[in-house]
């Protein structure tokens, strides 16, 4: 687990506080969407299919920051759309960092070098660059040539300037263990990014490409082969060991949708970042008025093949905190990765 030690301690302290307060539901990280507009049209994306009037909207800074503070989460992932298209994205980031929130700015990197001067390196801030494969594979997934090369150039420049840089990779049934190994080796060893996140793609109902999403058994086989030969221990993966066990079928969990709530232009989204069953104006309403029990594998058909980290990583983290053995295992891997 490649999470920096300072961040690990803060999150662990936060989790301990929730346990002492006997809170049953609480956020680990907020998925903040301050806009839906994007400068790419990825085949597997189901987040940008909105009317032109909605795509022109930008969330006010105070509203964005206020939502994160309302939830109390220690971390925030700023997504979209493409966040760097928001004219005040630097103000949103700066205000959240000032509140000591760990901020991950998700980006396809097309505007990253152009906008980099707006940001300041901080242990509380990281660019999270979306990379789905090496050049040919990535450019195909985003339906535009040259995106991979621009992303690589942006990552190198950000690292040169002292920014933390993480990556987020989504995999489909067109991927093989070898293609995944190749891209993660490149990110880990050649680009030397600080952390990498991985996830099987979720089958968005509105995604243009509906043919290449993975089923549960396909996902398990894919990652079991990918993680063979000690690869998962060598890569700086920003995941708990139990979540990686889950991906390759060594463990099974229920989804914990409430732990990574989504806030967008429409409000707090029910029930999660991936599914949209309506919106409520406050975080409290989201937690108290959502029928969480009706979601999950075996309950809602939309959840049948989902193994995405936004649903299952929180379950793995909570299971880790509830087990001395798993806590020691995670701590050992954190120390090892911070020495790498």
Automatic annotation (TrEMBL):
UniProt-recorded name of the protein: Adenosyl-hopene transferase HpnH
PROSITE patterns, A to Z: RADICAL_SAM (PS51918)
Domain (Radical SAM core) ranges: 22-233
Domain of life: Bacteria
NCBIfam families: HpnH
Organism, as annotated: Streptomyces albidoflavus
Gene Ontology MF terms: iron-sulfur cluster binding; metal ion binding; transferase activity
Pfam families xref list: DUF3463, Radical_SAM
UniProt keyword Iron present: yes
């Amino acid at each position: 687990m490649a999470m920096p030690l300072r961040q690990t301690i803060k999150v662990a302290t936060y989790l301990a506080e929730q346990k002492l307060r006997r809170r049953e539901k609480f956020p680990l990280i907020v998925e903040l969407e301050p806009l839906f507009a994007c400068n790419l049209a990825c085949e597997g994306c189901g987040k940008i299919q909105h009317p032109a009037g909605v795509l022109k909207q930008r969330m006010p800074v105070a509203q964005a920051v206020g939502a994160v503070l309302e939830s109390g989460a220690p971390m925030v992932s700023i997504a979209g759309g493409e966040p760097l298209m928001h004219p005040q994205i630097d103000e949103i980031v700066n205000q959240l960092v000032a509140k000591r929130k760990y901020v991950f700015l998700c980006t396809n990197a097309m505007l990253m070098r152009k906008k980099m001067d707006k940001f300041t390196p901080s242990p509380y801030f990281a660019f999270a660059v979306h990379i789905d494969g090496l050049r040919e594979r990535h450019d195909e997934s985003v339906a535009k040539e040259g995106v991979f090369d621009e992303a690589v150039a942006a990552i190198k420049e950000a690292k040169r300037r002292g920014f933390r840089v993480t990556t987020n990779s989504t995999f489909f049934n067109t991927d093989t263990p070898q293609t995944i190994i190749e891209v993660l080796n490149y990110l880990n060893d050649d680009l030397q990014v600080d952390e990498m996140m991985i996830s099987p793609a979720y089958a968005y109902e509105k995604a243009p490409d509906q043919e290449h999403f993975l089923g549960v058994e396909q996902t398990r086989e894919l990652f079991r082969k990918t993680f063979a030969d000690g690869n998962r221990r060598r890569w700086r993966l920003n995941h708990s060991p139990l979540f990686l066990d889950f991906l390759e079928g060594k463990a099974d969990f229920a989804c914990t949708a409430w732990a990574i709530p989504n806030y967008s232009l429409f409000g707090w989204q029910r029930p999660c970042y991936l599914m949209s069953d309506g919106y409520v104006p406050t975080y409290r309403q989201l937690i108290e008025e959502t029928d969480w029990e009706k979601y999950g594998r075996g309950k809602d058909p939309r959840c049948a093949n989902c193994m995405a980290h936004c649903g299952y990583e929180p379950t793995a983290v909570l299971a880790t905190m509830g087990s001395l053995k798993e806590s020691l295992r995670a701590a050992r891997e954190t120390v090892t990765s911070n020495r790498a």
